[in-house]
Design a protein that fits this description.
Elements (H helix, E strand, L loop, with lengths): L24 H13 L4 H10 L9 H34 L5 H33 L2
Helix pairs in contact: 1-2, 3-4
Length: 134
Amino acid sequence: MKKTAGRPELKIGKKTKYLQARLSEQEYQMLVKTAKELNLSQTELIRARVLNNNQSLLINAKEAIQTLDKISIELNRAGNNINQIARYTNSLKLQEKENNDIISEFNRLFGNYIQTQQDLEKALRKIMRQLAHP
C-alpha cells in the first residue's frame, strides 16, 4: 500500500475552477477591508456574496459579541435602576407616604423597559434565524 502525504483527495465539492477578476485599487481595498472585518478570506467573501446572491448574512462575530455585551450591560443597569425605584416606592408605601407621581413614573419606565427588552429579543431571534438559514 502506497503512502500519500497530505490531506486526502476530495471526491465531492472539489473546487477545480479558477476565477480571475480585475478590480480598481479602491474596489480591492474595500474587498480587503470587508474580508478582514468579517474574518473571512477574500475568496470566502467573494464566494458568499456571489453564490448566495448577496442574501446571506455576513457578520463580524467579534464585533457582534462586543455589541451584545454592551447591550447586556445597559439592560442590567436599567434593571438595577428599576429595582432601586421599586424598593424606594415600597419603603414609601410602608411609611404611608405613597407618591402617585413616583408610582406612575415607575410604571411608565418599567413598561418602556419591558418593550425594549421584547424588541431586543425579536431582533436577536431574527438574526439567529438568518444565521441558521442563509
